[in-house]
Write a structure and sequence with these properties.
Layout: E1 20-23, H1 33-39, E2 46-51, H2 63-81, E3 95-101, H3 109-123, E4 127-131, H4 140-156, E5 165-169, E6 184-191, H5 192-195, E7 212-217, H6 224-233, E8 238-241, H7 264-271
Parallel strand pairs: 1-2, 1-8, 2-3, 3-4, 4-5, 5-6, 6-7, 7-8
Helix pairs in contact: 3-4
Organism: Streptomyces filamentosus (Streptomyces roseosporus)
Protein name: Phage tail protein
Length: 277
């Protein structure tokens, strides 16, 4: 059992409340067609998936990414506004998020906003994933300025219902003030060997599970149930677990999250069908 620093009443999802998937970013749709097809799979409890063409939106619209984005957008529309709202065997209504690389706070504000506008104009995304987001207190004002502007851009977009979604890709527990700067924080990203003994910051107990995401690679099939239990006890509502690791080569990618885990069908069945939001 991992060592937890939060009090018992902070273990908010220990009762079995539903988890959902966040996909940090699959390979290009040409290289990973099965992965992108699974995002619109009926019954897959997808919260969101990240679109990343060339560490951002690319220099022009990509027809293959446009097609993949369109399929996911249509799946969301069917899930949220379909004729059978009680039908659980359907797509979960997950959002497509545009990948913005903050480079730990080093990228200029204007560059990030230009990329954000391209994502909105070309792909009708429903939010943004802010990769390599800084975690220290000194950078918080700049991140708050950026997220405030992004929320305003999304609110003006006809594709981002509900004002869109912003996810901060810290990969660790940041200064607590970041929790008020976006909709969700990625507070763990790394190997299973670290995750199974990881600690959760006490301040996270003040927030519900939908505010936190965990991405773990190298999770053996035999430890899948344990990994899900850690996520629930640590109060993460969004997960992506894979048995791949950063030494694997899949679709020309060394990123363990760029491809489906070998036990994708099993983890989908364990979590069960659902609808986001």
């Amino acid at each position: 059992m991992p060592y937890l620093t939060a009090p018992a009443d902070a273990r908010r999802t220990a009762g079995g409340e539903q988890l959902g998937f966040g996909v940090p970013g699959y390979a290009h749709p040409l290289l990973a067609p099965a992965e992108w097809a699974e995002l619109a799979r009926p019954g897959a409890p997808l919260h969101w998936a990240v679109l990343n063409i060339a560490n951002g939106p690319g220099s022009r619209p990509d027809p293959h990414c446009l097609e993949a984005a369109g399929r996911l957008h249509n799946a969301r529309e069917r899930a949220l506004h379909g004729e059978s709202p009680n039908d659980t065997v359907r797509a979960s209504g997950g959002r497509l998020l545009g990948h913005l690389d903050l480079a730990h706070g080093e990228r200029p504000f204007d560059e990030l906003i230009a990329d954000a506008r391209s994502f909105i104009d070309w792909y009708r995304i429903g939010g943004f994933y802010l990769a390599r987001c800084p975690a220290d207190r000194d950078r918080l004002p700049a991140v708050r300025r950026l997220t405030g502007t992004l929320h305003a851009l999304l609110a003006e977009s006809d594709s981002a219902d509900g004002g869109g979604r912003l996810v901060l890709g810290h990969r660790t527990h940041p200064y607590p003030g970041y929790a008020e700067a976006a909709d969700q924080l990625v507070t763990f990203q790394g190997p299973w060997t670290d995750y199974r003994w990881s600690q959760v910051a006490e301040w996270t107990a003040d927030y519900p599970p939908e505010r936190f995401a965990h991405f773990v690679h190298g999770v053996p099939r035999t430890h899948l149930e344990e990994a899900m239990r850690v996520a629930r006890w640590q109060g993460a509502g969004t997960i992506f677990f894979t048995d791949r690791n950063d030494r694997d080569s899949q679709n020309g990618q060394s990123d363990p999250f760029a491809a489906l885990p070998s036990y994708w069908d099993e983890i989908v069945s364990r979590i069960g069908p659902g609808i986001s939001e």
